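User: C-alpha cells for this one?
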Amino acid sequence: MSVDPAQSKPAVIVVSSLVARGGVGLRATAFALERLGFPVWQVPTIFLPWHTGHSPSTKIVPSDDLFTAAIADLAGSPHLAEVGAVVSGYIGDAAQAAAIEALVTAVKKVNPKAIYVCDPVIGDAEGLYVAEATATTIRDHLLPLADAATPNRFELAWLTGMDTDTPTKALAAARALGPARTFVTSAPALMRGQIALMLAGPDGAFVAEHPLLDGPSSGPGDLVSGLVTAALLSGASSEGVLKHAAAGTFEVIAVSAKAKADEMMLVAAQDRFVHPMAHIQVRRMVEGAAAAR
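Assistant:
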C-alpha cells in the first residue's frame, strides 16, 4: 500500500515535543504527514535543543495558562473544519492534557468523522521518563478519547498493568487499553532477531515483523504515529495501515543505521516512507479460545 501525496488531504493537528536538532516528536510525526500531502498544524508542548537521550538538554515548557490559551485559539478557529485528525505525542506537563482533550472535543464537534491518535509517550524499557502524574493523566483522560493509540510495549505494560513480554500477552494488553485500534511498537516477535508492529483492531489482530536493526532508537514511534494517521485518513485497510507503517519505519531506520547516524535520517530517507519497498509480511493473529488451544 502506498499513500498518494498528490491528492488533496485534510489538515492534521500534531501536538508534541519540538527539538532544534533531531528526528523525534514533531520533527518526525509532522514531517511524515507533510511529505505524504497532509497540511499540519504544529503545536509544541516543549522545546529542547536535542532530545535528552544524547545528553542533558535545556527544556522550555510553556506555562499552563499560555498553552491552554493557545489551544483554545485553535479550538475556536474558523478553519477548524479543515482538520481531519489530531495526533498527540509527548506532553510537557500533566496540565496540558486538559487542553488537548478540549481541542479533540472541539475538532470532533465540527467534524464528527475526525480521528484522534494518541501516542502515549511516557517511557521505555528503562522506565518512565515523564512524571507519573503526566503518565496517569494520559492514561485516564487522553486514551479514553482516542480512536487509535500507538504505545510501545513498555508503555502498554505500564498503562494496563499487564505483561507484554510475549505476542499473546501483548495482544491481550492492547485489547485492554481501550481505543478501537491499538498499534504496539517494539512488540515481541515470533521470529528470533525480529521486532514487530502489532495491531489490535475492530476487524481482528495483525502483526508485521521485520529484522531488528542497530539504528536510532529515538523517534521511530513518532514516525509510526504519523504514518498510521496518514494511512487511516487515506482509508487503508487494517493490513494496509500496518504494512505501510512497518515498512516505512523499517526503511528509514535501515538508511539511518547504514549511515551510522545518531538520529533518524528523515530527509534523506523520505521517499522510503512515501513508497516503501521493503517486503513486510502481515499476518493475522489468532485470538481468544482458539489461541489457547
